[in-house]
Design the sequence.
């Protein structure tokens, strides 16, 4: 059986009700097959015995102990059970204390003299080894160790009420009740690349006996993933359209009219890329083009102008943005610019519901809409076009490959323009996307001043506050960005809520401001941004929700706290929110003491360069934060098992296999429905989530 055939809903598992099903859905898991392809983000290593003797503070013990005594400390409600244990694994007889906060009921379980398997993190406190986070399981009747010992336990990304225990339970139950998952690739390919059978890969992914096995599983699944990614993105040879444009090209009347009414002139680069795009749009073969240009370089405008060509020829255009906020901003701009030309626009996101949604979809399918702007809601199967000819994807790196592919399937080979401010290094782009054509805007619109970037040590923030105060008095605006929403948890990171109250009461009393983050309802976010745009607010205190695409020219200051925690591309995107007019703009990167080497390199790159291309190359060289095993994410494409920036050999190998296959035609039919392909197609799109770190 293929993993993809496990289409039973996740709710068919015992103990999974509506609530947990929703939590699973947030992780992109709808059925039990999805669950099997859910990659752990790390593993907890319980494969080796780690006795208490010589245990370093902060590390984990994995051993067998005997309970030697019990006592209580604290009084009243805080009265807490303390259990002393002695290591009996044979590796010394060190003692340790287990503090059972809120778990006094354990007194009955931990009988003096009885033996337990113990796993826990220990601290050296008051000359005593102590743990308050531990797991104790009685030895089995025959004296053997319970199930978790000797294993590597998977640690999964969580959502809502899901816990590791629940996910492990559910994964095990699916693995136990299904045998022999079929292979996804032809035998010869697997042998050539030393891949393990699918059944082994799935089992070792969740229940590896060693890190080696876990890696083996990831390597196999990663290869399959790359294989299908490349199968979907590389085109057959022979359909290549060259980068150099020889055909003579003229703007249509509609385009001319639009351009002539703009309050500014197009830049030279905007002209160049428009020639490239529009002449390819005019050809029979469908376009597959990437438009790259730094934040604020005027890509969106280019996209609208190119769309006019398709509309003039009777086609429909889909414009897709990664978040509702951005989609709305684009829709507003389009309404202002395009509606006067008689272009019929529509805006579709998840929050357009009921009757208006129905009417909108009807109009779309009858061809009464020229441009539809939206989020990934444009992918849902209810969205039918009349003659979709052109798809524009903004901030393309935010979408999975899959979403693009499923949109492609809606039109007859529509032309595609992907836009990105996170440039893909050309070599990588060519490998992954084959003959994808690239248009680049390198120059900024006239009059833009380079942003001045200051590095601010945490203790010298006062001068920064004063400088920003001066900007306020000039009527300019600012963004303050923090990595957390509130101060829950032990984190010492500055957060949006506490800093908002500090800024508004101490630093800038009387200066109008608002706080914005992903937990706010959509309407509220929209209304705050509208007020900010109308200059009713002087500054926003926010999480990285402002990272993507927000365009407010009067904002001149970007303050990023804990800058050392952000990756280079995020920093560059954030900084790109300012410097969007002819005003001088400033970026303040506030950092903590004791920077790691990589963090130091990252913020130095930011200080020295405003060039998105340079920064992207540096980003590849310096590892960004958040690159933990399992959540492998490069700046522009999110994969589950493979890494586009590390697995070069795998990419090359998969590419060769795919090209060989594309050259012959045979074999493609069998592969058309691979599980991994389906998973790619279903991968949840980027969410408008804050980056909390
Ligand atoms: P991008 O999508 O590349 O980040 P936008 O298309 O959003 O950039 O453009 C940023 C801002 O610059 C917008 O306010 C836009 O109206 C303006 N703009 C675009 N092209 C020009 C130009 N040639 N001259 C002046 N301003 C421009
Ligand atoms: Mg943009």
Sequence:
């Amino acid at each position: 059986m293929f993993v993809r055939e496990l289409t039973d809903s996740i709710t068919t598992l015992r103990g999974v009700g509506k609530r947990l099903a929703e939590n699973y859905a947030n992780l992109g898991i709808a059925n039990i097959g999805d669950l099997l392809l859910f990659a752990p983000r790390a593993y907890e290593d319980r494969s080796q015995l780690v006795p208490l003797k010589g245990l370093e503070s902060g590390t984990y013990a994995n051993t067998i102990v005997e309970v030697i005594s019990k006592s209580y400390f604290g009084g009243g409600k805080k009265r807490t059970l303390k259990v002393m244990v002695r290591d009996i694994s044979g590796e010394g007889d060190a003692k340790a204390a287990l503090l059972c906060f809120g778990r006094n009921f354990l007194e009955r379980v931990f009988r003096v003299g009885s033996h337990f398997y113990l796993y826990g993190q220990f601290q050296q406190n008051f000359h005593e080894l102590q743990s308050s986070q531990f797991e104790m399981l009685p030895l089995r009747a025959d004296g053997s160790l319970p199930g978790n010992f000797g294993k590597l336990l998977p640690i999964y990304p969580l959502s809502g009420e899901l816990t590791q225990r629940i996910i492990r339970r559910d994964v095990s139950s699916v693995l136990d009740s299904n045998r022999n998952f079929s292979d996804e690739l032809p035998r010869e390919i697997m042998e050539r690349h030393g891949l393990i059978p699918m059944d082994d890969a799935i089992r070792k992914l969740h229940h590896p006996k060693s890190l080696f096995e876990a890696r083996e599983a990831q390597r196999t699944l990663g290869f399959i993933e790359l294989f299908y990614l490349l199968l979907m993105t590389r085109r057959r040879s022979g359909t290549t359209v060259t980068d150099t444009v020889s055909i003579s090209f003229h703007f249509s009347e509609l385009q001319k009219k639009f351009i002539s009414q703009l309050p500014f002139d197009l830049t030279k680069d905007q002209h160049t890329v428009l020639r490239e795009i529009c002449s390819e749009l005019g050809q029979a073969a469908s376009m597959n083009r990437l438009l790259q240009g730094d934040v604020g370089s005027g890509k969106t405008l280019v996209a609208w102008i190119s769309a006019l060509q398709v509309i003039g020829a009777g086609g429909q255009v889909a414009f897709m943005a990664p978040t509702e906020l951005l989609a709305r901003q684009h829709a507003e701009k389009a309404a202002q610019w395009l509606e006067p030309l008689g272009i019929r626009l529509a805006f579709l996101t998840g929050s357009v519901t009921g009757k208006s949604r129905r009417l909108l979809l009807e109009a779309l399918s009858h061809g009464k809409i020229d441009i539809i702007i939206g989020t990934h809601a444009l992918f849902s199967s209810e969205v039918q076009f009349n003659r979709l000819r052109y798809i524009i994807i903004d901030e393309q790196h935010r979408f999975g490959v899959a979403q693009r592919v499923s949109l492609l399937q809606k039109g007859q080979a529509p032309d595609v323009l992907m836009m990105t401010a996170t440039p893909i290094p050309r070599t990588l782009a060519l490998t992954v996307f084959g003959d994808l054509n690239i248009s680049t805007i390198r120059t900024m619109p006239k009059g833009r001043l380079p942003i001045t970037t200051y590095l601010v040590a945490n203790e010298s923030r006062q001068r920064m506050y004063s400088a920003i105060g001066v900007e306020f008095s000039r009527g300019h605006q600012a963004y303050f960005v923090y990595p957390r929403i509130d101060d829950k948890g032990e984190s010492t990171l500055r957060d949006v809520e506490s800093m908002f109250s500090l800024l508004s009461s101490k630093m800038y009393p009387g200066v109008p401001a608002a706080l914005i983050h992903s937990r706010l309802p959509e309407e509220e976010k929209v209304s705050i941004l509208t007020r900010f745009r109308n200059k009713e607010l002087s500054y926003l205190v926010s999480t990285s929700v402002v990272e993507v695409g927000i365009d407010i020219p009067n904002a001149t200051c970007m303050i990023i706290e804990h800058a050392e925690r952000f990756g280079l591309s995020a920093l560059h995107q954030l900084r790109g929110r300012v410097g969007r007019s002819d005003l001088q703009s400033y970026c303040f990167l506030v950092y903590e003491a004791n920077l790691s080497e990589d963090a130091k390199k990252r913020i130095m790159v930011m200080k020295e360069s405003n060039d998105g291309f340079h920064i992207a190359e540096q980003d590849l060289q310096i590892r960004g934060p958040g690159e933990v095993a399992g959540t492998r994410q490069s700046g522009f494409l999110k994969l589950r098992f493979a890494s586009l920036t590390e697995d070069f050999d795998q990419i090359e190998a998969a590419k060769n296999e795919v090209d060989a296959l594309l050259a012959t035609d045979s074999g493609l039919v069998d592969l058309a429905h691979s599980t991994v392909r389906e998973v790619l197609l279903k991968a949840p799109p980027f969410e408008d989530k804050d980056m909390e770190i």
